[in-house]
């Protein structure tokens, strides 16, 4: 069926947007707020036991800052607690990096496979609905199970399963645009869906920040319910036509997987891909531990409750600049007929933003960095995507090659937290995270100079 307009098309847009917002609320709330808190609770129980279990982390971090500044000297007991604090800081950073990175790798493996399988699914309910229902029901089950993870290892396993299975919703949901929306309305559907994507992530993060202090990890039940309601509404109210008579050519996994290497043999595509990995790597390294930095890096340090409520606002303050940049950057690049200068400038601006908290470890610096990085990211996203299209080695395989481009973002996002966690463990603090993020994003700008076949 094709929605040409009128009430059916409007109903499709509403439920497409709601289903998208429900799934991205999970990423905004769980990844941004719930998981860091859960990791912190587990590691706190490992490091501060017995009489130390009621230690005031905020006061301890303030003491550490005073000692580093040379305005206080630790007693023997205080030094013992500071040594525990250093181990705790390193452990929670490494553990959060492990949990998020394993899940990202699992998602990278699942996404293309589910895409192929949903294209070839024969059922009385259509091609996409079975995968969306599977992703919502099983993924929500894993999401609830995350609530009860007793150790970091179990948490990593459960969250990897939850994130990978929940992504069985996103891919098929996006594919319904190609299935059901005429070409003349694809831009409208994609734009409104993108708004739902963005709004869902923000609402999920802010909601977690507000609710976590009152309901604790039980907030995961709410996110599971949101996914179930969003997907159920879409599938039940927008029934797809049966695909039992679908005819598909024989598929062989070997050629399919080898095909992903083809675009990377092209000089220009390879350099743009490398630049994207570096920028995503640096950006993810800088954003991985926002909650922890509010408690342990800035002066004065915040309490867990204060940091939990403020962490989502770090994203929220970047929204206006990101939206304005998104709206203007692509249009400007089309008007001047050049992409490289804008990609280079946005990467350099991203690198400059990392220097703000590096040189000024205070709460206002974190917010200022978020605003500047948001503008840089808003410029980068549409223009870098256009640059990828300009350097495609084979326009007939655009879907495959742009999928590889997206893989570059996922790869950088998976590796960034791992690098950041290792830096915290090796240096005992977060200053090195900002330094390496600045270097990586600056190198991303330099990589674009190597592109020869685009302007």
From TrEMBL:
It holds the Pfam family MFS_1. Keywords: Membrane, Transmembrane, Transmembrane helix. Gene3D superfamilies: MFS general substrate transporter like domains. InterPro entries: MFS (IPR011701), MFS_dom (IPR020846), MFS_trans_sf (IPR036259), Sugar_transporter_CS (IPR005829). It is found in: Cell membrane. Residues 268-455 form the Major facilitator superfamily (MFS) profile domain. It is a multi-pass membrane protein. It comes from Cryptosporangium minutisporangium. The chain crosses the membrane at residues 12-35, 96-117, 129-146, 152-173, 194-214, 220-238, 273-298, 310-330, 342-360, 366-383, 404-426, 432-451. This is MFS transporter. Signal peptide: none annotated.
């Amino acid at each position: 069926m094709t929605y040409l307009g009128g009430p059916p098309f409007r109903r499709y847009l509403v439920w497409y947007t709601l289903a998208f917002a429900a799934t991205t609320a999970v990423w905004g709330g769980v990844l941004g707020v719930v998981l860091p808190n859960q990791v912190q609770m587990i590691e706190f129980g490992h490091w501060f036991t017995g009489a130390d279990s009621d230690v005031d982390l905020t006061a301890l971090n303030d003491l550490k800052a005073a000692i580093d500044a040379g305005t206080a000297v630790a007693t023997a007991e205080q030094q013992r607690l500071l040594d525990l604090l250093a181990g705790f800081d390193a452990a929670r950073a490494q553990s959060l990096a492990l949990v998020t990175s394993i899940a990202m790798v699992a998602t990278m493996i699942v996404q293309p496979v589910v895409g192929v399988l949903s294209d070839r699914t024969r059922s009385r309910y259509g091609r996409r609905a079975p995968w969306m229902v599977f992703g919502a029901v099983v993924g929500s089950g894993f999401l609830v199970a995350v609530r009860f993870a007793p150790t970091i290892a179990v948490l990593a396993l459960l969250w990897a399963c939850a994130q990978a299975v929940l992504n069985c919703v996103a891919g098929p949901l996006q594919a319904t645009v190609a299935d059901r929306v005429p070409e003349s309305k694809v831009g409208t559907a994609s734009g409104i869906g993108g708004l739902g994507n963005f709004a869902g992530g923000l609402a999920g993060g802010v909601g977690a920040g507000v609710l976590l202090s009152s309901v604790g990890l039980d907030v995961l039940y709410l996110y599971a319910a949101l996914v179930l309601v969003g997907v159920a509404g879409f599938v039940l109210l927008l029934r797809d036509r049966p695909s039992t008579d679908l005819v598909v050519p024989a598929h062989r996994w070997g050629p399919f997987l080898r095909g992903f290497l083809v675009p990377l043999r092209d000089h220009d595509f390879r350099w743009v891909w490398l630049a994207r990995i570096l920028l995503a790597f640096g950006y993810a390294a800088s954003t991985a531990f926002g909650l922890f930095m509010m408690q342990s890096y800035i002066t004065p340090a915040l309490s867990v409750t204060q940091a939990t409520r403020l962490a989502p606002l770090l994203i929220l303050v970047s929204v206006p600049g990101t939206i304005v940049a998104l709206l203007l950057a692509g249009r400007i690049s089309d008007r001047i007929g050049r992409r490289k200068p804008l990609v280079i400038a946005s990467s350099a601006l991203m690198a400059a933003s990392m220097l703000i908290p590096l040189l000024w470890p205070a709460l206002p610096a974190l917010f200022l960095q978020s605003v500047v990085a948001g503008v840089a990211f808003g410029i980068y996203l549409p223009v870098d995507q256009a640059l990828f299209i300009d350097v495609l080695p084979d326009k007939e395989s655009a879907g495959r090659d742009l999928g590889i481009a997206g893989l570059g973002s996922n790869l950088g996002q998976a590796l960034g937290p791992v690098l950041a966690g290792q830096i915290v463990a090796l240096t005992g603090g977060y200053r090195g995270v900002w330094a390496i993020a600045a270097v990586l994003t600056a190198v991303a700008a330099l990589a674009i100079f190597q592109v020869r076949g685009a302007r």
